[in-house]
Design goal:
The chain is α+β, with helices and mostly antiparallel strands and 171 residues long. It contains 6 helices and 5 strands; from the N terminus they run βββαβαβαααα. α1 (39-53) packs across α2 and α4 packs across α6 (152-170).
Length: 171
């Protein structure tokens, strides 16, 4: 279960099931904008999804670590003893990456990466020259990747693409 708020302040929760073959299926997308996100409400909604799909098909429940979600996971684990209570590691990494991004040196590095990618993204001629140079030099990246603040993985992809290009050029 994952909750997020859109620009219009809608509170949307998605329920995704991951199979033992690591395939993911969106089971339900619910708009809780008009609901109070209490632990009782969320636990009830989780139970509703579990009951509809089948109790025997669940091994764990994963959410972020907001207090209401944490308690909802505990309530779910208490109700269904075989369902594990797991905190979302991707959310935890996102929080860590956000905290690291507040360190001045890292913040400056991120800003510099943004300037570089914006330069190439805002100039079709520069972008074409870069693409041709990467192809000619057989550098194994398609171009510079743009960082998106709400996606912690994109920060890695952005910095990695720039560092790989620089290392190739100076190496």
């Amino acid at each position: 279960m994952d909750g997020w708020t859109s620009k219009r302040h809608e509170s949307l929760y998605n329920y995704i099931v991951t199979t033992s073959e690591r395939k993911e299926y969106l089971i339900s997308l619910r708009n809780y904008s008009k609901e109070s996100h209490t632990e009782e409400f969320l636990a009830s909604e989780i139970s509703d999804v579990i009951e509809k799909i089948g109790l025997d098909k669940f091994a764990a429940i994963v959410t972020d670590n907001a207090a209401n979600c944490w308690v909802a996971r505990e309530k779910t684990e208490d109700k269904y003893n075989h369902i594990l209570n797991i905190r979302c590691i991707a959310h935890a990494i996102n929080l860590i990456a956000t905290d690291l991004g507040k360190i001045d040196d890292i913040k400056d590095f991120i800003l510099d990466c943004g300037k570089i990618t914006r330069f190439f993204n805002n100039s079709h001629q520069s972008s074409a020259i870069l693409a041709q140079g990467l192809k000619t030099m057989k550098i194994g990246i398609e171009g510079l990747q743009t960082w998106c603040q709400t996606r912690w993985g994109s920060l890695y992809i952005t910095t990695d693409s720039i560092l790989r290009l620089v290392l190739f050029l100076i190496g």
